[in-house]
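Changelog excerpt

This revision adds worked examples to the README so contributors can see how folded entries look when concatenated. The first example is reproduced verbatim below.
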Amino acid sequence: MADVRDMYMAHAAMREFGLLPQLVRDVRSGDTRRAEVVGAHAELLCLILHMHHEGEDLLLWPRLQERGGAEAAAVVPTMEAQHHAIERAHDTVVGLLPVWRATGRGGEELAVALDGLYDALVEHMALEEREILPLAEKYVTADEWKGLGEHGMSKAPKKALPLAFGIAMYEADPAVVKAVLAHAPLPARLLMPVIGPRLYAKHAKRVHGTATPPRSTALVR
């Protein structure tokens, strides 16, 4: 059955949303160069989030509802409702990003929208880890769970994948990373554990000013 440990890895990466509001607020009004750096990072995180949740909507919730009986019926509708709320917050952020990136103005409105998105994410991820992952271990096969991850990767721009994986690896258990890469082509299995962290360290230094920004345990509200 499903090995759900990689979901904790994905959620740790999603908690990087918690750093975005202050990053936006720290950009001086009109500083378009810095707004572009932070805005591009926010856009990448929003893309990762959207693809991750789309996969759950299409591939996870229907299987749990079909197989999980009363256990799934008690929680899956709440998860779906939370996804809708997160998607609305996500769409607000995505709608505000282009103008802010181009002008460096309107940052507080964007930061408030990011605060709302992060709060919704934290609530959702906590419930998912507590209620959904145990159900997935019971009712979803390993191959089906693998397909959930592959859905996101198939939709994301290929050039963004190494950095996205580096973000996810930042707090990941090496054993989980190895399990995730187990079915990848040999070059990816060999290179990604080296390339991913290097790409993220370089990216984080540009975005956060340090290669080691606060970890998710310091961001949970």
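The second example, added in the same revision:
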Amino acid sequence: MIVLAIDTAGTGCYAALYDSLEDTVLGSAGADIGRGHAERLMEFVDAALDAADMVLQQVDRIAVTIGPGSFTGIRVGVAAARGLSLALGVPAVGVSSLAALAADRKAGLPLLVAMDAKRDEVYWQSFAADGAAISPPAIATLAEARDIAAGHDGMIAGSAAVLLREGALQEGDGASIATVARLGALLEPQDHLPKPLYLRGPDAKPQAGFAIRRA
């Protein structure tokens, strides 16, 4: 199976072609661009296809990171994955950023993935030594997350690790696009539809008293 993997959930914008039968990344492209995912994503998809010497019609599945992460970046990636899925007539799956980060670490120990959500909050999820999730993705206050970390007997990974455990190394939240592709090849499409994993509500809220009456 040929998987087109897309990751726009963070500051990076990446795409890769992956052959699941050979467990090989055939071509990849992308960069840590900060902003402008909508403008650059298809450029990187085309570059990954060129690197793999393939065309879109050879893709059997789309895999896309669904967050948690950048609100806008997630929307861009999920919209692109859905559009390509519809146009090509192939399934698309959503890959959790937390699960991808856990799989990238290959800890072999119980693992707490903790991403700095800013505003003194943390996105987190716990995984067993074999990589299986043992809690759902969640958001917690920094104080709550420190209590969770204090009771965790294992490794902590992610950008919030330094906030939760003394002596932890500073690290980012980006998983490799190869890991996103590998996870995407294993997921059942009917159980992992590509929809944003928003653990925090949107900042923009409608203003009360300013609704326009419909005719």
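Reviewer comment on example two: The mean pLDDT is 92. The first strand starts at residue 2 and ends at 7.
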